[in-house]
Amino acid sequence: MRESAVRKMAPSNIGATGPGGDADVRFLTVAEVAARMRVSKMTVYRLVHSGELEAVRVGRSFRVPDEAVQEYLRRSFFQAG
Q1: Structural domain includes residue 48
Q2: Could you give the angle at the alpha carbon of 42 between the alpha carbons of 35 and 67, nearest 5°?
Q3: Could you say which of 4, 7, 25, 80 has the lowest number of CB atoms within 10 Å?
């Protein structure tokens, strides 16, 4: 696996409180992200490995911050017509 493609979040930022800290960060599984975006889990894995979607590795699986999914969708939105 290409570990370098997965953006690492500093442990001090996870669950931190105070200025700049997000005590209520919600992490989603790959299956939850796929269901929310209505794509396959493989598509989510491709986005994570390419670096387009921020993720945290937990053991052998990935967790994606909810805000990262929202940001990815905002960046991907375009006007047709």
Answers
A1: yes
A2: 50
A3: 80
